[in-house]
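Predict the structure of Carbohydrate ABC transporter permease.
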Amino acid sequence: MKTRTGARVAQYAALLAYLVFLAFPLLWLLSTAFKSPTELGSLHPTWIPRHPTLANFRQAFDEQPLLRAGLNSLLAALGAALIAVLLATPMAYVMARRRTALSRAVSGWVVVSQAFPFVLVIIPLFLVLKDLRLIDSLAGLVMVYVVWALPFALWMLVGFVRAVPVELEEAAAVDGAGRLRTLVSVTAPLLAPGIVATGLFAFVTAWNEFFFALVLLKTPEKQTLPVVLTHFIGAEGVADLGPLAAAAFLATLPSLLVFALVQRRITGGMFTGAVKS
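Done. Here is the predicted structure for Carbohydrate ABC transporter permease.
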């Protein structure tokens, strides 16, 4: 009994330490965003600002077009997430249900593609987009985000499709439903948590992405939020810490809000009531 109690205490202590580790950057960012320049330059920093101020937020919006950049990021992230899910869902269904040499080869490509560094693919992507006249456009950036997110999205959805009982599809086939009807009416509703999780992954990845946006977007009016955040760093590498913290904190909110809205859908039972025992 004492051994089990000690193990349980150790588990909770490890979980608490992990939560503190995850929350520390966000809490410090929030604290910095509300500090005055005097407190930011203090040799003895504190967690809670002595004199909280909104001046950093006002200065951030005055210095950089955060709203426009945020809208660009939102359009790119939503577009990439939607297209990636629409493409990955039928592809994952075929890969999960048809165990052929081609599906195994595609699975291997999915795993290998995740090891490619950004630098390795940026030049070919740049040349392709140049030929398509999509350089310096959000459409071209969305295309890149879809290509980059699709392998992992496909890998995620294959696991969800394989968890769907085949008996449900066989029953639909007995009732006269074809493959497409079965996918749309039977399998897709049961895949809702997986589709939401995959879309969330694609959205967060595109929202936080910096390197592709920096290389492909040159017009200031089209730049995304991660790129605009670098403008708070001067030519000599000195950061305007207060406005930068305020802008960075605002940039993290959409991802947190999206996850908070859909987390119950993700963690909910996937097949509750689908199969009777």
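The CA atoms of residues 184 and 219 lie 41 Å apart.
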